[in-house]
Task: structure prediction
Amino acid sequence: MEPEDEIHANGGVEDEEGSMSRSSRPIISSGEQLDVEAYASLYQGRTKIMRLLFIADHCEDHPAMRVEALRMAYDEIKKGENTQLFREVVQKIDGKLGPDYGMDSAWCDMVDRRAELKKEKLENELNAYRTNLIKESIRMGYNDFGDFYYAHGALGDAFKNYVRTRDYCTTSKHIIHMCMSAILVSIEMGQFTHVTSYVSKAEQSPEALDPITAARLRCAAGLAHLEAKKYKLAARKFLETGPELGSHYNDVIAPQDVATYGGLCALASFDRTELKNKVIDNVHFRNFLELVPEVRELINDFYSSHYASCLDYLGNLKANLLLDIHLHDHVETLYDQIRNKALIQYTHPFVSVDMRMMANAFKTSIAGLEKELEALITDNQIQARIDSHNKILYARHADQRNATFQRVLQTGNEFDRDVRSMLLRADLIKHEYNHRARKL
Amino acid sequence: MGSLETLVAQIQGLSSSAGDISRLHVILKQAEDSLRSESTRLSPILSQLDPSIHSLGYLYILEACTSVPISKEQAATLVPYVARFISFCVPEQIRLAPDKFISVCKRFKEQVVLLDAPIRGVAPMLAAVQKLQSSSEHLTSLHPEFLLLCLLAKCYKTGMSILEDDIFEVDQPRDFFLYCYYGGMICIGQKRFRKALELLHNAVTAPMSNINAIAIEAYKKYIMVSLIHHGQFSTSLPKYTSSAAQRHLKNFCQPYIDLAVSYSTGKIAELEACIQTNREHFESDNNFGLVKQVVSSMYKRNIQRLTQTYLTLSLQDIANTVQLNSPKEAEMHVLQMIQDGEIFATINQKDGMVRFLEDPEQYKTCEMIEHIDSSIQRIMALSRKLTAIDEQISCDPLYLAKAGRERQRFDFDDFDTVPQKFNI
Result:
């Protein structure tokens, strides 16, 4: 899995990648198996480990890839202090990587022992600060504790300690630091409601945010919306992300991810004009798209109605997107929505559409297309009817006049019925009231 | 017995003018106890009286006659008397003693049921209802009895004639519940689902302080009729529904709610499975026939949905999509639906295609204009009535006393605003 070798070995597709500078190598390459090492190099810190583990857990079909991911996760963990995660990985490797990647109890004990000492030291320090009541020092103390717990994988405790620094924040810079830490931990924990609330807290800070922080906050908010299945909002956030982001947030998200997440969410949820204005003509976002040419191409294809090639790109990307820790749950939904959008857009301008041609354009069988169209028509997303005999789709224009008559008569009937039953209820209530009055 | 003869003489003498009749009423009230004590000897007297002239007296004697439990044989002799009395009596006279008339009619109903001949009671009961009610908007205690007889005798059409009238005045809430429930069943029998839905809906949403069995049964039927008629059912009741109903109805009707849920999936198999698991429940509620109609309505609903999507579709495809066994069966369904005017389509038997057409109604015909005009007239009349009742309520001393007590702290001007207390 040496990247250099790969470039030489395969021409064609890889050429495209080769032309990109090494640092911005696209991680998601069309149709090819995910290049785990290149992918992992985009990230650092805990998310790198978690992403590798996620890949290892989700690629049962590729044992080689699984082992590779585990090996890199093992190496990465060894650099940190999280013994809990270490034990898990060792269990997963299960001796498949030879004696070098076995259980290293000595290392674990050493790290644990050091952690104990450090914890004690931090506790003492914090107590001292607290008795002296120096706000800044207490904040630092809690913050150190947060960092300590985070490094050791105790995310809940880390979150608590980071949040605790809030009472001791004196400048808005401190508050933003607190928010960023809390957001980081919350994302790792998968608590995206916390993410949203801390993002808005950070954005409310009186001082203007520096562009990098602003971009990081946009990404975090985008992720939170994505998890909440609010794709349109997620797309907006990702699209607003400034180019300053670079690799400054690679303990959470890589700029490539911004392009992929943002692009797919936008395709699934934006209409045509929005797509043009906010995605294709968006100078900032173009920089991100350059990192993942496939996504750029497929958006352009979609916009210029080359659905077949757009769907091709999507199909090629799918396997790798399914290995993405944040996107995997949403791939199916997003794909369905994009496909439906394409179908709707395709039929929109025509009075009648030959389904054979349409099936060709979408690389599907006529029967399959018929089913898809049927679902969309039932959902009232396409106003048309299918001539199943001749395989032609006819647009159907609602007859306003008839519809109005129908609605008027229906409304009249409903009013009639409602008033009558209301009068009856009034009479019953009156009756009941009289009845009670008589009893009194 | 002298007193009885005098009474007969008095009845015969005092049945002409209005003044005489009110005097007679006083006399009869006094004689009530003695009549009851001699109930066994009264039947011969009836032949001396003419129900079309001596209605009030006849009514008192008949009431006394029927006040004791009677055997089947006695009932057989008595029923013709009562039937004749009901058809010939004078409405003005019997309305002086509505309680007596109601109890005579109720016992009459029991007797025809006892004789296993409910159909014999239908026509007299209809006459009784019409004679007792002061206007067609008045719901009497005889309405439910009459509807029950119609149900037992399967004379749904006769029952419908009463249900066509709008009801606005109710004597007893219980009558209202029964009226709605039986009325709903009659409409179901006639496949007038919209009317049935309205009646059952009224029973379910009527104000009640405690939940009652009639409302529960009505709710069960309401769920099913709603599925048959609208193809869907929403478990949330309108907000004017009494809190008792909102809180408890669903707990008593779980199998039916499950039915509605499985219906909403649109899959026949799931619906069938749900019916199988709850079969005993539906059968013990005597609702299984309606459940079967729910199933067949799902086929219809699915076919109807196809008309929204397709212009032409082969019978084979229809059979596949709506999960029918064969194209032949699908053809029968489509044919039936075309016949009933539920879809507009033509079947081409040569290549087994169905062509769905648009609704040919163009809203241009004279009939349609007339229909719309009559609807407008009807709604105008209704809203006049609404205004009148609103005025009437805002003048009602009881209401004013209550509203005044609750809103003392406001100015007098506030009193003429629309009442907010009644959540109707």
Notes: The interface with chain B takes residues 373-374, 377-378, 385-390, 394, 401-402, 405, 408-409, 412-413, 415-417, 419-434, 437 of chain A (CB under 8 Å). Confidence is low (pLDDT under 50) at residues 1-31 of chain A. Residues 431 and 437 of chain A are 10 Å apart (CA to CA). The longest strand of chain A covers residues 384-387.
